[in-house]
């Protein structure tokens, strides 16, 4: 695989808003977009800053938001884990007044809008390149596609979004208001449809690059939840995008499920990753967070020394875990359940106080919630089934694990197509075939399904895509996000959309709070 983006270690300074007085002497050595963006290498240097923004979605902010779904919880930590803020995500009790700059509301809002602002800067710079540039249209399409993805992520979380296409407020112009989701939906759709013709089709030489299939995959996600966003379903439009992706050259299902989550997962053949991020040596300061958050506190014995701390979580929620087929390899090989056995001695590991480490299905969100008559039985710190889906990078420095992260995978598109065909036609052979191709990779021997229903699609998506940040959106589409779950009673549906951070409302009086908060 070519790595032309990975070798760039100097990031282009953003220059699009540098102005000059027309009466001043012209300086021939001034760096401007038209002077810089002429070669493919120069455009590549600019795109590094765009792709670097995507790495924020590999970090723990995305897992915290996924924590709002039914698939996992970040519930405990030796130090109490951040004063209950994670628990309020589990229980759908997030507050607009949660002002920590770290999580979950203010930080993810800033991830979205800092990303959009930085991408806007680069789009402006690309637009200033000579019109006859061979590369201009392609790189503008790449950047606009990534920006559309950021808008989709923001709309999924916060609902109405301000549509901003400049990097900074224009002096004298009013601060932006939040556009209705229907307008944000149309903006994202237009950006993607206009970008697709200027993107290459098929597996790119460098997997982090945006292809036509990348844009179509983001568009399919938009259409898949169109009824949630706008009140009008767009099943046929989603199906059209799915079929274009499934018929594109170079893509397919990886033969082994867990190969997709290994440290060297950028080298899969055929290529299952359609929208993909990977740390860029010398440029990135973010890597996949699973190396820290998903490694249990005393799991290090399994790997030897890991050059960063382990955070003891998160854990899969009991109801979700119990819905797996007991023969599903995605369960038996992807999670750690039961006593933690030392690979060195073969004995059950204990902590410094001699307490045996036993990852039970049952656990509580906080130690003080454990019934008094069971507190000798349940330690809580070590309870909860842990994920070992992502290979731990023993050579990682801090959080810069080398595992790439698939934002959207080929099997996700297969499941989308299967779901839509059922919604349009009822259970059918094509949907059965698509689902069973995916299940064949997860069962030995095969356990095919017949007459697959929407309920089965809902759970197959959960089992296949656990921890990959799709579950909350699926639950919104299936109208289950607010229902009673492992850690919360049935909640009002307004809690499906997160509150706008109060600091943002105080800074911009044009922002109104989401209903119910």
Which descriptors would you attach to this protein?
disordered N terminus; two-stranded antiparallel sheet; 4% strand; 18 helices; mainly alpha; 517 residues
Q: In a few lines, what is going on in this structure?
A:
With 517 residues, the chain is mostly helical.
Q: What percent of residues adopt helix (DSSP H or I)? A: 25-40%
The chain-level mean pLDDT equals: 84
The chain-level structural class is: mainly alpha
Topology, number of strands? 8
Strand content: under 5%
Order of helices and strands: HHHEHHHHHHHEHEHHEEEEEHHHHH
Evaluate the radius of gyration.
Answer: 23 Å
Oligomer: single chain
Contiguous uncertain segments of 5+ residues: 1-31
Largest sheet: 2 strands, antiparallel
Distance between the terminal alpha carbons, to the nearest Å?
Answer: 49 Å
Side by side, the strands of the main sheet go 1-3
Shape: globular
Q: What is the count of DSSP helices, taking H or I runs of 4+ residues? A: 18
């Amino acid at each position: 695989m070519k790595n032309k983006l990975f070798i760039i270690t100097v990031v282009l300074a953003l220059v699009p808003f540098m102005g000059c007085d027309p009466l001043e002497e012209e300086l021939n050595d001034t760096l401007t977009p038209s002077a810089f963006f002429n070669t493919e290498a120069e455009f590549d240097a600019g795109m590094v800053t765009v792709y670097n923004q995507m790495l924020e979605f590999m970090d723990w902010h995305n897992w915290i938001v996924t924590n709002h779904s039914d698939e996992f919880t970040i519930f405990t930590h030796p130090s109490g884990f951040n004063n209950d803020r994670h628990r309020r995500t589990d229980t759908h009790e997030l507050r607009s007044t949660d002002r920590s700059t770290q999580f979950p509301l203010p930080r993810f809002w800033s991830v979205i809008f800092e990303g959009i602002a930085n991408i806007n800067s680069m789009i402006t710079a690309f637009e200033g390149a000579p019109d006859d540039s061979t590369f201009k249209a392609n790189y503008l399409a790449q950047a606009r596609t990534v920006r559309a993805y950021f808008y989709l992520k923001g709309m999924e979380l916060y609902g109405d979004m301000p549509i901003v296409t400049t990097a900074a407020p224009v002096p004298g112009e009013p601060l932006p208001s939040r556009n209705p989701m229907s307008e944000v939906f149309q903006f994202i759709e237009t950006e993607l449809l206009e970008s697709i013709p200027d993107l290459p089709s098929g597996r790119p030489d460098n997997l982090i690059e945006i292809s036509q299939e990348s844009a179509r995959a983001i568009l399919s996600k938009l259409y898949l939840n169109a009824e949630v966003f706008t009140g009008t379903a767009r099943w046929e439009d989603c199906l059209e995008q799915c079929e274009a992706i499934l018929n594109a050259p170079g893509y397919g299902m990886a033969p082994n499920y867990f190969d997709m989550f290994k440290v060297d997962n950028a080298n899969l053949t055929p290529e299952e990753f359609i929208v993909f991020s990977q740390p860029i040596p010398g440029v990135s300061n973010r890597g996949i967070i699973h190396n820290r958050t998903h490694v249990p506190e005393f799991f290090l014995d399994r790997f030897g020394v890991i050059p960063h701390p382990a955070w003891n979580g998160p854990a899969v929620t009991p109801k979700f875990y119990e819905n797996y087929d007991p023969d599903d390899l995605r369960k038996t090989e992807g999670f750690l359940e039961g006593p933690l056995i030392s690979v060195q001695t073969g004995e059950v590991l204990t902590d410094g106080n001699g307490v045996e480490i036993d990852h039970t299905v049952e656990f509580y969100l906080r130690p003080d919630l454990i019934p008094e008559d069971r507190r000798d039985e349940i330690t809580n710190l070590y309870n909860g089934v842990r994920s070992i889906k992502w290979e731990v990078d023993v050579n990682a420095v801090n959080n810069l694990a080398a595992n790439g992260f698939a934002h959207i995978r080929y099997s996700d598109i297969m499941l989308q197509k299967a779901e839509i065909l059922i919604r349009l036609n009822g259970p059918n052979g094509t949907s059965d075939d698509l689902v069973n191709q995916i299940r064949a990779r997860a069962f030995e021997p095969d356990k095919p399904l017949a007459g697959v229903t929407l309920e089965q699609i809902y759970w197959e998506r959960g089992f296949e895509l656990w921890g990959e940040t799709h579950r909350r959106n699926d639950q919104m589409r299936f109208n289950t996000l607010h229902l009673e779950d492992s850690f919360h009673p049935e909640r009002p549906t307004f809690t499906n959309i997160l509150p706008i951070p109060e600091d943002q409302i105080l800074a911009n009086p044009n922002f109104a709070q989401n209903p119910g908060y």
